[in-house]
Amino acid sequence: MHLVFFPIKDADGEITHIGSLTHDVTESRKHQEDLVQSQATLQAFFDNLPGLAFLTTNDGRIIAANSFLADEFGITAMRAKDMLGNDIQTLLPHPWAAELEKATDANERPGKALSYEAEIGTPSGNRHVSSIRFPIRAPDGEVTLAGWLVFARTAQMRATDDLMATREHLHQTEKLAALGQLLAGVSHELNNPLAAVIGQASLLAEDLEGSEHAGRVSKIRRAADR
User: Fold this and answer.
1) pLDDT tens digit string along 151-189?
2) In sequence order, what are the beta bridge partners of 52?
């Protein structure tokens, strides 16, 4: 209950009575508690997301956020308590700030959201992130807020690079294996007729030993051996 007590004075200004008003504020107090709980739930949702999340007004002022970038990458300026009330353009690391105008333009069109990837510098090194900016509309359809979600993709990018490197290595190995099979086949195809050349050259060398053709037969044999 909400109680109000007030003095009632006579014509001489003397207090002669005490008045009181009593008002049942159960519903309004419940609504207030529900609002506080809703805000706490929303903040808990933000804080437990595996990425950066925040809400901004149309002019870029942050009204809700989590501290993912500060906790994950050590970007202290991106703590939730330091972000609230600030202009997002002053906080976003490069090259996000360069993408902000494009993202805003995309959100001004009905139903449009913009996603893009960027590489940012952090105290712990460069990190790949994937960002999504989307409009939030009032019941009358007017865009009143913008939502942002930013997810770290460094591990996925590294895994993708490793997978591509493995595939390339496997591809090169397969090419070498195919080349080896080709060379083995060529060698086999050459060995058969060359064996006959070497054999016949040996027989000729015996028959023509000491003759003027012995040198030519020797050259044939050496060439076939090589």
Assistant:
1) 776 556 566 666 777 787 788 888 888 888 888 888 888
2) 150
